[in-house]
Amino acid sequence: MAEPAAARGPLARLIDIQPGEGRALAWAWAYIFSILAAYYVLRPIRDQMGVAGGIENLPWLFTATLVGMLALNLPFAYLVKRMPRARFVPITYRFFAANILAFALTLYLAPPDWGVWIGRVFFVWLSIFNLFVVSIFWATIVDVFSNAQGRRLFGFIAAGATLGAIAGSATTALLAKNVPTWGLMLGAVVLLEVAVFCMRGLAAHATRLHEMPGSTQGAGDGQDRTIGGSVLAGVTRTFASPYLLNISLFLLLFSVTSTFLYFEQAGIAKRSFPDRGAQTAFFASVDLAVNVLTLGVQLFLTGRIVNRIGIALTLAILPAFSILGFAALALWPTIGVIVAFQVLRRAGNFAIARPVREVLFTVVPREDRYKAKSFIDTVVYRLGDQVGAWSFTGIQGLGFGSIGIAGAAIPLSMVWLVNSLWLGRAQEQRRSTQDLAGADEPGPVSVPLDRAVASTGR
Fold first, then answer.
1. Is the dihedral of CA 344, 346, 351, 355 positive or negative?
2. What's the structural domain count of the chain?
3. Alpha carbons 221 and 17: distance in angstroms, whole number
4. Which of 88, 129, 144, 389 is a Cys-bridge partner for 59, taking CB atoms 3.0 to 4.6 Å apart?
5. Which residue range forms the structural domain that includes residue 166?
């Protein structure tokens, strides 16, 4: 019989934490806090640079980002193939930290007329950096925590991301008008090194988590195990699996509709705030509002929502809300509606959709958690940005404005809703199949599908 929450400490009153999970959870919190703080120090700088370079040029920047994602996936897959997690994760983070130092030095030394081109390169680079470092974090978390632990804890872990985002965006909002951009960048470098330290602390507790009841991973499945496989496995395994293809579709549709809203927000900022420092502070303030709202949901609602309505209906919340939000935008295409929709939608993604989406990867083979997941989280996501950016440009060029954007986004959100329900049911079936087979490694097993479905009551 499980201990009552009061006997396990104050944290157990907030979330369903089990004995032996506390230290790993604390390291995971500190790890994602550092990653998101570093990114949100830099994100308002990127947004301001994107506006300064001309909103009409943003689709080209999204195209360059997709090309960069494709170029970076192969060397990352090579690292995953040849090195254990304890080596390739720090190498990746320190590579990005060295990039930030190079940008800071360039901004410090470059003449003012270089600013626009430096800004465009930085916009593309940070758009790549964000997805890679966060994807690697969640791949590590999925590798360390089991499916059962993920359902209980991923929402709470995501709250650490939100606290980091709040700290980063608040720092930039307070300092952007008085601290040079290169000085803010140096702070992000320090935070990335803290993330490496926390990742190693988390890895040290991975073996104990794998030995706990309910884990589908062996005790030796820790950071010293090299994953191996093919460099192109992320692409080939994604296209060979209907399950991974549907995860890709989920992310693609989310990205396309998110890009529509991002471009609307960028236009508002340029029209409303002529000063660059004021633009940076505005973007940071929006980020801060999103993250404060997200934190409250993550701490008190996410885990309870998943346990009450299940994976499928939880995944469906964000596309259902997007249908309503874009409908409101079609009826009232005002600044207030756009900003409110953006804040609520982003909070819903960070607080509910993102942690639940990561649970989907707890039932795939370990190679897919790093290679296929990285391909989906980076290339597929940025492909959605690309489709959204050029579609937005085309719709605006035809003179339809916000009403046309909403008219395109609503049917996409309806497809996204159906896709979410399918994914949730498929995840439950895979989990049940693995439970019946007692598999040590997620993947195909020889349990008949009707037994798996019957065990879930469907």
1. positive
2. 1
3. 22
4. 389
5. 17-455
